[in-house]
Amino acid sequence: MDQIITLEEVKKHRRKSSVWMVIHNDVYDVTSFLEEHPGGEDSLLEVAGKDGTQGFEDVGHSDDARELLKKYKIGSLPPQQKTSFIQDCSKLKWAVLALAGAIVLGFVIKKAMNK
Ligand code: HEM
């Protein structure tokens, strides 16, 4: 079973002596990885005690890097603190709906003006 670790607990580990971070709702202890990180320790320290998912994904880490993650995983966020994929998708869904709505509205206005 996964160890449940809250965001409040992760927040306490943001100093070089102990660096934890959240990536995709899982908690990682990267303290021993700081010096080994090919992207430097600063990029890791920047998101220490926080959610580093965005930073991790922005870089476009390789499959090797993703494989390496497993080594440092110490637990997961409690379900109520997880950022769900569905939530992310629903944002996209609204954006697409809004765009579709704008296009339809455009057509309706155009038609009305042609009358
Ligand atoms: C436990 C978490 C992480 C692991 C295991 C990891 C691993 C790696 C590895 C193996 C590389 C070499 C390139 C590759 O294979 O993709 C790399 C590069 C890099 N990483 Fe990470 N990384 C982690 C977290 C992060 C985070 C949170 C950030 C930024 C907020 C970051 C920023 C970078 C940058 C800037 C590079 C250099 C890319 C380049 O030179 O092209 N990494 N990382």
Q: What are the bound molecules?
A: protoporphyrin IX containing FE
Note the overall shape: elongated
What is the percent of helical residues?
40-55%
The gyration radius over C-alpha positions equals 21 Å
CATH topology name of the largest domain, in short, is Flavocytochrome B2, Chain A, domain 1
3D architecture notes:
This protein has 115 residues and is an alpha+beta fold. It has 2 domains: 7-79, Flavocytochrome B2, Chain A, domain 1, CATH 3.10.120; 84-115. It has 5 helices and 4 strands. Strand 1 and strand 2 form a beta hairpin. Bound molecules: protoporphyrin IX containing FE (HEM). Residues 28, 30, 33, 37-39, 43-44, 46-47, 52, 55-56, 59, 61-62, 64-65, 68-69, 72 line the site of protoporphyrin IX containing FE.
Please outline what is shown here.
This is Cytochrome b5. The chain has 115 residues and is an alpha+beta fold.
Topology:
Layout lengths: L6 H5 L2 E2 L2 E6 L2 E4 L11 H6 L6 H7 L3 H10 E4 L8 H30 L1
Antiparallel strand pairs: 1-2, 2-3, 3-4
The structure holds protoporphyrin IX containing FE.
Membrane topology: Single-pass membrane protein
Protein name: Cytochrome b5
Keywords: Electron transport, Endoplasmic reticulum, Heme, Iron, Membrane, Metal-binding, Microsome, Transmembrane, Transmembrane helix, Transport
